[in-house]
Specification:
Elements: H1 17-26, H2 28-48, H3 55-77, H4 87-95, H5 97-107, H6 115-140, H7 146-157, H8 159-182, H9 190-202, H10 209-225, H11 232-248, H12 252-255
Helix pairs in contact: 2-3, 2-6, 3-5, 3-6, 5-9, 6-7, 6-8, 8-9, 8-10, 10-11
């Protein structure tokens, strides 16, 4: 009977620093992703509040950290043994959200720093880092760092809003990039390359928030155009902008894959 009953202090797998070391050894890539995402958050904060670093340096370090995160995620999603020089592989590659944001970092490596550029990568890094931080805290013990757990819970509670804001930033950034190209803050090819990024995000299979945000903006624009008090010229310009964006959107079949 004594052998069949659990000991009084046995509440599950071991916790604490030894358990954390074992977790790190067993999940090296995931822990590396967590650490790099924390760096992305810190570099973005360093850009906004340049106390210990040059803001321009913090901006490009955040982009580099995002590129490293995206490359590691691509390594997880597409192992090296599956890489091939074929159209099928390229189609699969560009369907990955990590590939989208790897190119995102490359697009903005040679532009003037701007907070809106860092907004999507900051929000994604914050959300994913918070989620894995909970795993780290659970490894240390259920009662460890309750203040951190509270903050993580607040981030996860707002996860849908965070993803919607990230999608809105991706969209709003497009006209800003066009303006930046016209006034010389980025290359003339940057808006064309960024357009492809936006179409990839629109057709994303794993993250529908960009597509949903486009739909919400279209509904908002059409409702605004229906207001009687709106001048006719502004109404025509608004509807023309809606038609232009609809023509630029990827085919519906691509979205439904």
């Amino acid at each position: 009977m004594a052998d069949s009953n659990p000991q009084a202090g046995d509440t599950g797998p071991p916790k604490g620093i030894p358990a954390l070391k074992a977790h790190v050894i067993a999940n090296k890539v995931d822990v590396a992703l967590w650490g790099i995402r924390l760096l992305t958050v810190l570099f973005t904060i360093g850009y906004v509040i340049p106390i210990f670093n040059n803001p321009a340096s913090a901006f490009f370090k955040a982009l580099l950290a995002n590129a490293a995160t995206s490359a590691l995620r691509l390594h997880q999603r597409i192992p090296a043994r599956e890489i091939a020089l074929s159209r099928e592989f390229l189609n699969r590659f560009f369907l990955e959200d990590s590939a989208h944001y790897l190119f995102y970092s490359l697009i903005f490596m040679n532009v003037a720093p701007n907070l809106l550029i860092l907004t999507p990568i900051f929000l994604f890094a914050l959300l994913h880092a918070a989620s894995y931080s909970l795993t780290i805290l659970d490894t240390l013990g259920q009662n460890s760092m309750w203040v951190a757990r509270l903050l993580i819970s607040l981030v996860e509670f707002q996860s849908r809003n965070i993803l919607r804001v990230a999608a809105l930033a991706e969209i709003v950034l497009f006209p800003l990039v066009v303006l930046m190209a016209l006034i010389g803050f980025c290359g003339l090819m940057t808006p064309f390359v960024y357009y492809y990024f936006v179409t990839w995000r629109y057709a994303s299979r794993r993250n529908p928030y960009t597509r949903n945000t486009f739909r919400e903006l279209r509904v908002l624009a059409e409702r605004t155009a229906e207001r009687p008090a709106l001048p006719a010229a502004l109404r025509a310009a608004l509807l023309a902008a809606v038609r232009l964006v609809c023509r630029m959107a990827p085919p519906v079949e691509t979205v439904q894959q």
